[in-house]
């Protein structure tokens, strides 16, 4: 028996896969190898892999003799060699034939596959028999003869045998091919030729009386596509002809044929000998002619017997037909599909499933008419296994109706945070189309048997990614397998894909399979059963056609979802908004004219959600307009906005205008803004920006698409009213406004009115003072007017009729109570009576309360709450996550969260409720903010793999590091706008830390300050826990460094955290570098303060070493800041201004050095010592000179040694300080915020800069103006004193002089200053820069007091002309600026100077110089317009910016917005003051014609959008403004001559 088993071992597999039994069997079969050697191999566990590695010495070592060893090794090598030489034969995989008697089925064959039915005769008279023809050995001449003759023969046999049948052309047979092998045929002729030729052959070959029956029974040829083995389309087909001998047609007839030619006979009267009658019947797998010549003694006997049996065959055929008809089923797959696709809700509008994932394979063209349901499902992802889908498949058809993002599977490999990947993929925002088997033209597809090895791993990554709980909410998405092609092969990629989903989802509850028919289902079910051992019958729909599936799913949409949506068009028309276009606008929620019409939403639940504190939806406005409903509450500012502000904004001449709606959180500001949009939805194209973190360039593009959609060329589009809600940074608002303007400028539409109105709805924690609206700003406070109160009372009475528990409508009741603190406190106190921090639902409430108070839009994902509270996962219906919060459920609300991915969340119902919850937890339940913060930071369960993890991390990060003042705003409303541009955690520099009481911003976030105040000392624990939670986070490390050097004075620890911050930073950041410098500077400052007495040499060395280190760090900060600014300028997307902290920090360190040196004996006593210090730090006196003249040298020798160590730094200290002072003054005087906002950091820096300059002047500029009048003083000394005096007053640069115009303190001494300058100018030692400054001084004086000027205007211009003949390279910019200002042509030709003819050259030089000097520093800024062109002559022709401000009577904080919207230029006093000039539009500039021949000057419009509506060559009028970047055209309008 053992011997039989041994001999039966199969050795056909590869040697490398053999077991040790197979190795022994192989050895025994070899001649020359005895049993001993074979058994030795067995005992040594020699298997196939080890046999491949054996050497002769190995066999000798295990006691195999040399002879057998040689035989073994030689035989092994020959076997391996033979295996390599043999071609690899891949046996065809079984497949089903094309469904019988079907013409439009989507089934296709794959080349090389094997039909799993054999050629056969009649079986049950209904199941078709088959016959295969390779159809290969034919020529073009014989192909049609072969085709028709074979069909006629086969058809006659089936008709006589009364059986259905199919003859296949392009299917191989033995011996040349495997029986049933799919080969395919290239069809070169028109397919109709086959049918026409066949029909003609039937009429020729059948008896005339039977031709009609034969034409009916023989169906037209069917051309079935043949796919390549990699699932791509080929040019081959299998040609099939079905035979259906229906009993009602054939009856008892028998069918003879003749062997005729396909050519039409000229003479049909008589048949030739080759056309003798034939009588074919099916016999086994072939057709046999019973009338063929035979040697049988009774040749007609078999024929006669068959004819006699025809009635019996007919009866059997009838029975088979009746049996088939009785198989019609009463299925319920329609209702089953409705329940499964919606998760039991029966409505797609309210589907249990939030997302759908589609898995599909190759489609057929006829199926593309039935994919509407896929578009409506709006799948989050489609896993497509058709590599040609983009060319002629499902992707092409889908993309015509809805936008898609095309992806390869490798995009889903986790190489960074999951939510960052999801954001890049735009997952949940638009459909991701994943090509899982390559894509034609990009990646080669794989054959079925190679797909798992080539692409299986990457597709598994896609599935694993999509099934993560932090990507799609667990149990709330459905995977739908749409089998467009039949799956027959166990190696088919869809089988492996199903198994992966089955494993990831732990079952089939979230999987639905849609098959086109029962055969496709049976094949699919059997493959899955064999692979996964699971019966998927109850998860499959297979008794509906795809057309029925499409109709069934579309019927689940409400009328509102099915109906077209319309936008307002020109002239009161309507434009249909295509679904694809709307879905492409992923950043916008478009409000249509017919919004909500035809909907079936639940009014009670929607209103309940809103009045509890949820965000208002369009349905709320829609319901309020229905008959019998109370109108929506109109706040007191609503009418003013709709009737006054917006119409006024529409009269402005900018492409994009801004309307600010500032409001206290929870007071209805967002609702008011949306109410405004709802009201204007028929007049404007209204939309809400739904993604504040979206790329602003993309947002601008989407807005422009909405604006231009459906507009004819040159037709004025309907303006867009875009609501933007809760931008944290006001500069982001202005940035978006500029980008939209740029988009509008790109169009050819000539419109002079605004094309886009930005309704900026922005929170302010508190609004103080008057709340009167301005031209572009409305304020909504937390106090209701009497009219508001009346409307709220009426609304409450109405709600009590339709809602049961209005007392829990806290969002509404808080407002109705006028934000009454006592009401809020009592609600919170009552609700939190049983609060216990040990309970999980209480813990989550504490987390929500803390994060909501300190972070806007804070929320927790529903998934996190379900996981943490261990709530059961519902499979149908909505999740009742609020119930998990038990008695606190009335304080929270479900909401939609738009983070990097979209998900469901919960939040506090009102910000004031959250604030009082924190107070109640602390006062009553002794749960401090520090305890809650530490709980958040140390509880790992909150950060498990769930949706919203990234959002939670970001919220917690923000409340730790963002330093905007909580509960504190500037004293007037417009400055609220200014304060909105302050707060970027990485951008708030350390320079704030120098200021004490004057600071607007704090050193730490409001949370850290409050913890420090509430539980002193615990803030350190919170920060340490933060560093553990946010490991390798540069900003947290920076925060800890700041904490230790400011609070703890632990500079070593601060340095350690600063180093970590630098290390963690992904790029060299000037703000991170500044922190390192600030640590050293504060250590220096602290050390100086602790040196109460004179400093000894050792202490001096330590302090100067710290100072040198700090200066080096600040210089690094300066370089990084300039590099960052230049990079941002090139990117044109980030308008963050230059970080100037490094420049100010270096100045501060220099001041500390002066303080240190003033304390050492060398410089600590007497005026002489003071002058010596000044001389040494100016580099005029060296230490060697000081030694030679120091009588106390022996006592000071150690000090000199220390000073010599730092001599280079000390000699350059004055120049270093002066260089930084000049840079900062130039920066602040010539450049303003790009958006006209006052920046608190700049104001703080200016204040500190002034303090430091006072110290500088005290040491280096000790002089008074009186000595200048002393005639007996030496001229050289007088010049020195004059220059010192000018330097002391910061007027030794053109920037300092221009600064006088905005510095009232300087104006009192300008007379003395100009006298000093005149004295210098008249001397022989006046430098070119001092001459230029003298010109500036006279110009500035003329703007302040004409009586003080020293030079008449003509003489001043002559001085300028002399300076222009010899310009200085380092002073080109200010020189050309003053030249353009003074030489601007006047109306009277005789008043102009010859140099005015070169004005264009001066402007060009000025622009070049501006770019050269400012390119590294002016990002996020714009040049200040210092002067305007006035109507008068001489000095009075120069109008300073301050004079325009005075005439406009605009508040300081309102001036920027009035400038932006053009209100200032409408002021009659301003118009009287300024000169309006004319010019012609030329491309993007205006050409100003002057009285000087051939001198036309190009000026740049300050706002390019003001050129809209003016064609090339149009004449316009405008004011001229002068900035360092060139002259500007301001307030461009139609011609208005003065």
Rg for CA atoms: 45 Å
Which structural class do the helices and strands define?
A: alpha/beta
Per DSSP E runs of 2 or more residues, the count of β-strands stands at 39
Largest sheet: 7 strands, parallel
Q: Taking strands numbered 1, 2, ... along the chain, how are they ordered across the largest sheet?
A: 15-16-14-13-17-18-19
What's the overall geometry?
elongated
Q: Overall pLDDT, averaged?
A: 84
Q: Which residue ranges are poorly predicted, with pLDDT under 50 across at least 5 consecutive positions?
A: 1-8, 262-274, 965-1001, 1264-1269
Query: Strand portion, in percent?
Result: 5-15%
Determine the number of helices (DSSP H or I, runs of at least 4 residues): 62
Helical content class = 40-55%
The termini sit apart by: 123 Å
Architecture overview:
The structure is a single chain. This protein is an alpha/beta fold and 1538 residues long. It contains 62 helices and 39 strands. Helix 14 (372-377) links the parallel strand 13 and strand 14 (381-384). The longest helix has 35 residues, at 1097-1131. It is elongated and about 155 Å long. Mean pLDDT is 84; it is low at 1-8, 262-274, 965-1001 and 1264-1269.
For this entry, give a set of tags.
about 1550 residues, elongated, disordered N terminus, alpha/beta, 6-stranded mixed beta sheet
Secondary structure topology:
Elements: H1 2-7, H2 20-29, H3 35-43, H4 48-53, H5 56-61, H6 66-85, E1 94-95, E2 109-110, E3 114-115, E4 129-133, H7 140-161, E5 165-169, E6 185-186, H8 191-205, H9 211-217, E7 222-227, E8 233-243, H10 247-250, E9 257-258, E10 277-278, E11 280-283, E12 286-289, H11 301-308, H12 310-325, H13 333-342, E13 355-360, H14 372-377, E14 381-384, H15 389-392, H16 394-399, E15 404-407, H17 418-425, E16 431-435, H18 448-454, H19 456-466, E17 477-483, H20 493-504, E18 511-515, H21 518-532, E19 540-541, H22 546-554, H23 559-562, E20 565-568, E21 574-577, H24 579-584, E22 588-591, H25 603-612, H26 618-624, H27 638-649, E23 656-663, H28 669-679, E24 685-689, H29 696-708, E25 720-725, H30 730-745, E26 756-763, E27 777-780, H31 786-802, H32 810-816, H33 821-831, H34 840-854, E28 860-861, H35 862-869, E29 892-898, E30 902-908, H36 911-923, H37 929-938, H38 949-961, H39 973-979, H40 1006-1014, H41 1018-1029, H42 1034-1048, H43 1051-1064, H44 1070-1090, H45 1097-1131, H46 1141-1157, H47 1166-1177, H48 1183-1188, H49 1193-1205, H50 1207-1211, ...
Parallel strand pairs: 1-3, 2-7, 4-5, 13-14, 13-17, 14-16, 15-16, 17-18, 18-19, 23-26, 23-27, 24-25, 25-26, 37-39
Antiparallel strand pairs: 5-8, 6-8, 7-8, 9-10, 11-12, 20-21, 22-24, 28-30, 29-30, 31-32, 33-34, 33-38, 35-36, 35-38, 36-37, 38-39
Helix pairs in contact: 2-3, 7-8, 8-9, 13-22, 19-20, 20-21, 29-30, 33-36, 34-36, 34-37, 37-41, 40-41, 41-42, 42-43, 42-44, 43-44, 44-45, 44-46, 45-46, 45-49, 46-51, 46-52, 51-52, 53-55, 55-56, 56-57, 57-58, 58-59
């Amino acid at each position: 028996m053992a011997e039989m088993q041994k001999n039966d071992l199969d050795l056909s597999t590869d040697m490398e896969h053999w077991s040790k039994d197979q190795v022994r069997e192989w050895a025994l079969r070899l001649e020359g190898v005895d049993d001993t050697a074979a058994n030795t191999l067995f005992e040594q566990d020699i298997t196939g892999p080890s046999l491949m590695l054996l050497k002769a010495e190995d066999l000798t070592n295990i006691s195999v003799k040399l002879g057998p060893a040689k035989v073994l090794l030689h035989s092994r090598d020959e076997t391996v060699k033979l295996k390599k030489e043999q071609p690899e034969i891949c046996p065809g995989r079984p497949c089903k034939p094309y469904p019988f008697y079907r013409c439009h089925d989507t089934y296709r064959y794959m080349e090389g596959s094997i039909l799993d039915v054999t050629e056969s005769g009649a079986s049950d008279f209904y199941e078709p028999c088959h016959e295969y023809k390779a159809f290969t050995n034919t020529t073009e001449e014989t192909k049609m003869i072969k085709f028709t003759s074979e069909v006629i023969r086969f058809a006659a046999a089936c008709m006589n045998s009364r059986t259905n049948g199919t003859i296949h052309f392009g299917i191989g047979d033995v011996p040349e091919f495997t029986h049933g092998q799919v080969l395919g045929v290239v069809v070169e002729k028109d397919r109709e030729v086959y049918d026409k030729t066949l029909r003609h052959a039937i009429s020729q070959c059948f008896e005339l009386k039977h031709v009609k029956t034969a034409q009916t029974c023989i169906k037209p040829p069917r051309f079935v596509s043949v796919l390549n083995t990699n699932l791509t389309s080929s040019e081959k087909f299998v040609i099939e002809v079905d035979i259906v001998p229906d009993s009602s047609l054939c009856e008892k007839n028998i069918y003879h044929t003749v062997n005729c030619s396909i050519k039409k006979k000229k003479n049909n009267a008589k048949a030739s000998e080759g056309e003798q009658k034939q009588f074919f019947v099916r016999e086994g797998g072939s057709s046999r002619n019973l009338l063929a010549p035979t040697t049988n003694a009774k040749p007609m006997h078999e024929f006669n017997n068959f004819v006699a049996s025809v009635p019996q065959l007919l009866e059997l055929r009838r029975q088979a037909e009746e049996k088939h008809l009785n198989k019609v089923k009463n299925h319920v797959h329609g209702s089953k599909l409705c329940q499964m696709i919606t998760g039991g809700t029966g409505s797609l509008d309210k589907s249990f499933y939030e997302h759908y994932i589609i898995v599909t394979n190759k489609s057929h063209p006829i199926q593309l008419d039935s994919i509407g349901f896929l578009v409506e499902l709006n799948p989050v992802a489609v896993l497509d296994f058709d590599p040609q889908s983009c060319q002629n498949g499902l992707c092409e058809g889908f993309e015509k109706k809805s936008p898609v993002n095309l992806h390869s599977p490798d995009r889903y490999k986790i190489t960074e945070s999951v939510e960052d990947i999801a954001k890049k993929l735009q997952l949940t925002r638009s459909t991701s189309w994943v090509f899982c088997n390559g894509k034609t033209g990009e990646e080669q597809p794989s054959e079925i048997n190679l797909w798992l090895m080539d692409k299986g791993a990457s597709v598994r990554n896609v599935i694993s990614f999509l099934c993560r709980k932090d990507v799609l909410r667990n149990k709330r998405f459905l995977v739908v397998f749409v089998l467009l092609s039949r799956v027959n092969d166990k190696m088919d990629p869809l089988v492996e894909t199903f198994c992966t989903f089955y494993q990831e989802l732990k079952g089939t509850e979230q999987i639905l399979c849609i098959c086109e028919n029962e055969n496709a289902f049976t094949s699919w079910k059997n493959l899955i059963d064999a692979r996964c051992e699971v019966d998927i019958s109850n998860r499959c729909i297979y008794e509906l056609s795809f057309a029925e599936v499409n109709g069934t799913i579309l019927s689940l949409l409400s009328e509102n979802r099915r109906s077209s949506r319309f936008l307002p068009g020109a002239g009161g028309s309507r434009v249909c908004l295509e679904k694809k276009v709307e879905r492409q606008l992923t950043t916008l929620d478009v409000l249509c004219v017919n919004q909500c019409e035809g909907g079936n939403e639940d009014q009670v639940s929607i209103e309940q959600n809103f009045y509890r504190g949820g965000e208002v939806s369009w349905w709320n406005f829609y319901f309020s307009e229905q008959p019998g409903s109370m109108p929506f509450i109109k706040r007191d500012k609503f009418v003013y906005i709709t009737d006054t502000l917006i119409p006024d904004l529409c009269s402005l001449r900018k492409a994009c205008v801004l309307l600010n709606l500032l409001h206290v959180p929870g007071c209805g500001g967002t609702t008011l803004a949306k109410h405004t949009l709802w009201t204007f939805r028929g007049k404007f194209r209204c939309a809400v920006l739904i993604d504040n973190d979206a790329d602003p360039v993309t947002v601008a593009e989407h807005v422009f698409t909405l604006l231009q959609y459906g507009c004819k060329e040159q037709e004025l589009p309907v303006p867009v009213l875009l609501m933007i809600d809760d931008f944290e940074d006001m500069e982001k608002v202005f940035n978006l406004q500029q980008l939209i303007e740029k988009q509008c400028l790109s169009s050819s539409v000539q419109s002079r009115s605004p094309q886009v109105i930005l309704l900026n709805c922005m929170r302010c924690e508190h609004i103080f003072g008057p709340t009167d609206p301005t031209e572009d700003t409305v304020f909504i406070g937390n106090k209701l007017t009497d009219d508001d109160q009346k409307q709220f009372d009426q609304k409450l009475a109405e709600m009590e009729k339709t809602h049961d528990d209005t007392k829990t409508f806290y969002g509404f009741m808080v407002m109705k109570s006028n934000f009454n603190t006592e009401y809020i406190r009592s609600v919170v106190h009552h609700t939190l009576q049983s609060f216990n921090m040990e309970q999980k639902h209480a813990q989550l409430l504490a987390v929500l309360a803390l994060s909501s108070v300190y972070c806007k839009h804070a929320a927790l994902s529903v998934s996190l709450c379900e996981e943490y509270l261990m709530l059961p996962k519902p499979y149908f219906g909505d999740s009742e996550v609020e119930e998990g919060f038990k008695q606190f459920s009335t304080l929270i609300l479900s909401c939609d969260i738009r983070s990097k991915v979209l998900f469901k969340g919960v939040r506090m119902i009102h910000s004031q409720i959250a604030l009082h919850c924190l107070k109640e937890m602390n006062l009553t339940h002794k749960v401090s903010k520090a305890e809650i913060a530490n709980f958040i930071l140390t509880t790992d369960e909150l950060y498990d793999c769930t949706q919203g993890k990234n959002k939670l991390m970001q919220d917690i990060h923000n409340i730790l590091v963002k330093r905007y003042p909580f509960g504190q705003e500037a004293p007037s409303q417009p400055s609220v706008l200014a304060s909105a541009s302050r707060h970027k955690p990485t951008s708030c520099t350390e320079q704030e830390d120098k200021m004490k009481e004057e600071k607007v911003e704090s050193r730490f976030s409001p949370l850290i300050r409050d913890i420090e105040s509430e539980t002193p000392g615990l803030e350190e624990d919170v920060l340490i826990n933060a560093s553990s939670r946010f490991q390798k986070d540069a900003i947290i490390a920076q925060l800890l460094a700041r904490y230790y050097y400011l609070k703890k004075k632990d500079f070593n620890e601060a340095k350690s955290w600063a180093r970590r911050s630098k290390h963690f930073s992904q790029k060299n950041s000037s703000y991170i570098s500044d922190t390192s410098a600030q640590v050293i500077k504060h250590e220096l400052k602290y050390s100086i303060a602790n040196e109460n007495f004179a400093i000894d040499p050792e202490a001096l060395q330590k302090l100067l070493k710290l100072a040198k280190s700090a200066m080096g760090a600040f210089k690094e900060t300066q370089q990084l800041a300039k590099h960052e600014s230049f990079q941002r300028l090139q990117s044109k997307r980030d308008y963050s201004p230059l970080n100037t902290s490094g420049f100010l920090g270096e100045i501060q360190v220099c001041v500390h050095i002066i303080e240190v040196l003033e304390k050492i004996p060398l410089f600590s006593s007497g005026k002489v010592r003071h002058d010596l210090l000044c001389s040494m730090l100016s580099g005029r006196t060296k230490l060697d000179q000081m030694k030679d003249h120091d009588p106390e040298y022996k006592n000071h020798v150690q000090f000199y040694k220390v000073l010599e160590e730092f001599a280079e730094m000390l000699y350059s200290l004055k120049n270093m300080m002066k260089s930084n002072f000049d840079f900062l003054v130039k920066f602040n005087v010539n450049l303003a915020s790009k958006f006209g906002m006052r920046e608190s950091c700049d104001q703080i820096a200016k204040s500190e800069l002034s303090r430091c300059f006072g110290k500088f002047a005290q040491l280096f500029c000790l002089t008074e103006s009186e000595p200048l009048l002393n005639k007996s003083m030496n001229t050289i000394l007088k010049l020195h004193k004059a220059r010192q005096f000018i330097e002391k007053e910061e007027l030794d640069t053109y920037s300092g002089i221009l600064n006088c115009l905005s510095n009232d303190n300087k104006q009192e001494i300008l007379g003395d200053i100009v006298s000093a300058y005149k004295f210098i100018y008249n001397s022989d030692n006046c430098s070119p820069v001092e001459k230029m400054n003298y010109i500036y001084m006279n110009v500035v004086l003329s703007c302040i007091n004409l009586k003080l000027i020293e030079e008449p205007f003509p003489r001043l211009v002559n001085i300028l002309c002399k300076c222009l003949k010899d310009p200085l390279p380092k002073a080109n910019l200010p020189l050309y600026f003053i030249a353009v200002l003074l030489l601007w042509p006047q109306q009277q030709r005789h008043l102009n100077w010859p140099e005015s003819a070169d004005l264009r050259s001066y402007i060009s030089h000025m622009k070049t110089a501006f770019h050269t000097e400012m390119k590294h520093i002016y990002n996020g800024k714009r040049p200040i317009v210092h002067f305007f062109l006035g109507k008068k002559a001489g000095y009075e022709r120069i109008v300073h910016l301050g004079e325009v401000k005075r005439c406009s009577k605009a508040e300081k904080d309102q001036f920027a917005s009035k400038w932006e919207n053009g209100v200032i230029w409408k002021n009659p006093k301003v118009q009287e003051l300024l000169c309006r000039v004319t010019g012609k539009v030329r491309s993007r500039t205006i050409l100003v014609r002057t009285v000087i021949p051939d001198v036309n000057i190009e000026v740049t419009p300050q706002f390019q959008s003001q050129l809209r509506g003016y064609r090339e060559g149009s004449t316009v009028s405008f004011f001229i403004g002068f900035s360092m970047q060139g002259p500007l055209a301001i307030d461009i309008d139609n011609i208005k001559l003065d």
